[in-house]
Write a structure and sequence with these properties.
The protein is an alpha+beta fold. It is about 30% helix and about 20% strand.
């Protein structure tokens, strides 16, 4: 019988074994940045994803203690003394405690629904603007951070609030003073993001076509043609008209070279770190590396070939990234063997096999649900591969996949597992 298999990323249940641990590395890599799809429209536009209290809690979490009076040291003096030398006096106001006047705004077709005059906290302003203009408040939070680092700054200066979102601040001229002020900045940025979509033909970067995008304000640094996939990504380029070069992507949390620009890279990176992937996880195997993650709350390990899932589990669910467990094969490798994944919702356990007979038995007789191809392995005898061995614990009903005799010995002698032999072959 011919089957069309739907991918499901790998999820293995394991125990901590006395083997060489995986190296702990960042799950987010610059290689995952896609210039034409920085963020999905669904993540950028629409109803607020956070309440006012949710936004406030998030701001509180980023700066638990504000250095209001500048008592911490900076460049050999207190922050208060350093600020005074620049004409700035205490107290410093962190964004979790900031307030501003709200100017009355009239509704505009295709842009924002307007707001009444008043005042509010930073969290309230972010929410009100997001709701009025149909922009995800997470987008505004990330924008504020990538422009002025206000979300994490524990001794913020008034100048940072004046240009909180960088609106009206071109690279080649001073900022336009008519747009100064926290509310003014957040409102105009959100309104402009909507205008980029409504009046797309008026702006340089458009979705659905190739766009030449520079790496830096200096044209001599070059650029490349980028097919922009959606209006949200086009909006980001119209707001910040540069893409990161390879040097900026190679050092994702640092600096690149003299031709690097960081605005859109930082937007993508911060969104990933704080709110999960800005693009929806695909239903494809995105990597031949099989990544291992660990959830301390459930004592479960997960193995995944989907880098989007890895980023989401680490940044939003609380998994710890433990590294690459082993290397699998691509689907077009000659004689590649699919490894099928099954899940038992009664026991919350997953099972992996290359055997169609195992699949049929598990589904028909053991209460498992077939979830698709997890990754591709190699058939026995393939040069340059090593076996993964399967073990079974009759007390917990858990299967375990390991790659070394040391792991086998430990699992059998110390953890009550039964050795069941090699199951598939990997690199």
């Amino acid at each position: 019988m011919h089957r069309i298999y739907k991918l499901a990323t790998i999820s293995m249940l394991a125990i901590a074994l006395a083997a060489t641990p995986f190296s702990s590395i960042s799950a987010l890599s610059g290689s995952e940045f896609k210039a034409g799809r920085i963020i999905d429209d669904a993540k950028f536009y629409g109803a607020p994803t956070m309440s006012i209290s949710g936004i406030q809690s998030f701001l509180d979490s980023k700066v638990p203690v504000c250095d209001t009076w500048g008592t911490k040291m900076h460049n050999g003096v207190t922050r208060a003394q350093y600020a005074a030398s620049k004409g700035v006096s205490t107290p410093f106001t962190c964004i979790k405690s900031a307030r501003d006047t709200v100017q009355a705004k009239s509704p505009e077709a295709g842009l924002c629904n307007g707001l009444p005059a008043g005042s509010g906290t930073a969290a309230e302003i972010i929410y009100w603007v997001a709701e009025s203009c149909g922009i995800n408040p997470q987008v505004l939070i990330v924008l504020i951070q990538k422009e002025q680092s206000l979300i994490t700054d524990d001794w913020a200066w008034p100048s940072q609030y004046r240009i909180a979102t960088g609106y009206g601040c071109p690279d080649t001229a001073p900022c336009d003073t008519q747009y100064y002020g926290f509310f003014n900045q957040v409102w105009n940025a959100a309104r402009q993001f909507k205008r980029y979509g409504r009046d797309a033909n008026l702006f340089n970067y458009r979705a659905g076509v190739n766009n030449y995008i520079q790496y830096n304000p200096n044209a001599n640094c070059g650029g490349s043609a980028v097919f922009i996939e959606n209006k949200a990504t086009a909006a980001l380029y119209n707001y910040t008209p540069y893409q990161p070069n390879q040097a900026a992507l190679n050092n994702l949390y640092g600096t690149g070279d003299g031709c690097s620009a960081y605005g859109n890279r930082n937007f993508w990176r911060i969104f990933n770190d704080w709110f999960g992937s800005p693009t929806s996880c695909s239903t494809e195997i995105t990597d031949t590396r099989v990544h291992r993650l660990y959830d301390a709350k459930t004592n479960k390990h997960y193995y995944s070939t989907n880098t989007c899932e890895v980023n989401t589990l680490v940044s939003k669910v609380g998994y710890k990234y433990e590294g690459v467990a082993f290397n699998s094969f691509s689907a077009d490798t000659p004689n590649a063997t699919p490894v099928y994944r099954l899940y038992n919702k009664s026991t919350l356990l997953h099972f992996y096999t290359t055997s169609q007979a195992d699949v049929d038995h598990a589904v028909s007789g053991a209460g498992y649900t077939y979830e698709g191809i997890a990754f591709f392995a190699a058939p026995p005898g393939t040069q340059g591969v090593a076996p993964l061995y399967r073990l079974y614990n009759p007390r917990t009903f858990r299967h375990l996949w390991v790659g070394s005799q040391v792991d086998i010995d430990f699992a059998v002698k110390q953890a009550g597992f039964i050795y069941e032999g090699p199951t598939f072959y990997v690199r």
